[in-house]
Amino acid sequence: MPKWFNSFGTRYVHTAVRNSKCGHSRTTKNGQSGVKEIMSSIVDQASTKEVDTLLRPAALWAADCACLALPVFEGKVPGENRPRQAIAGAREFGNGGRRNVELRRLAWAAHTAATQCDIVGAKYAARSAMLAASLPFTHTSLRLGPQGVRQGRHVLGPAVYAALACEIDSENPSGIADSVLNLAMSIVSESVVCLLQHFPLQPQGRTRLAELFHQLDGALRKVS
């Protein structure tokens, strides 16, 4: 079982966020008055600047979620910092940084770290970081059919892959993924939920990964 979990559940996932040295964006549902109306308008009539405004809160949330699984990767691959750098890149964008070639490079570097890792849990943790750095490149205009589903996965992916990484890494995996997803839901902002609602619902699937995507997507759409 990962050292930050015990019978008290998500309390120790919170500890993992604080201790991962990734920083924490403190994404919350407070202070979001009128966000749904504003975000709906941005999605429907999006300039580049407005898309950045839409995606920055999602990038901060993605970075927080990816941090949950970072100890899984770094515990198995000590000295490898590409996933950590990708998370830092996502957080920088979320805090006002540019969506540029360097951010894309960080995402690809984390992807390479994942492909070079033979430990499944650590591989998924690196993918979570890669997806966090990739989120700023989400195409908010692609909202229908398989393309819309894929764009929705850009938003959900960091949390889902973090949950799967922690579950696989655990000696007693029962309830671990649920704990991670519940924490991800507890720190999501209303703007992220609104963004997600412009994409199709993730379909049910036969794999564990598809199951987690569908579970998180459905739960977030019920967040008020």
Write out key terms for the chains shown:
224 residues, 10 helices, globular, mainly alpha, disordered N terminus
C-alpha Rg (nearest Å): 16 Å
Task: Give the low-pLDDT segments.
Answer: 1-21, 25-46
How many distinct domains? 1
Total helices: the number is 10
Description:
There is one protein chain. This protein has one domain. It has ten helices and no strands. The protein has helices at residues 11-19, 35-44, 48-76, 82-94, 101-115, 120-134, 145-169, 176-186, 190-196, 208-220. Helix 3 packs parallel to helix 7 (145-169) and helix 4 (82-94) runs antiparallel to helix 5 (101-115). The chain is globular, with a radius of gyration of 16 Å. The N and C termini lie far apart (33 Å). Mean pLDDT is 82; it is low at 1-21 and 25-46.
What's this entry about, in short?
The chain is mostly helical and 224 residues long. The chain is built from 10 helices and no strands.
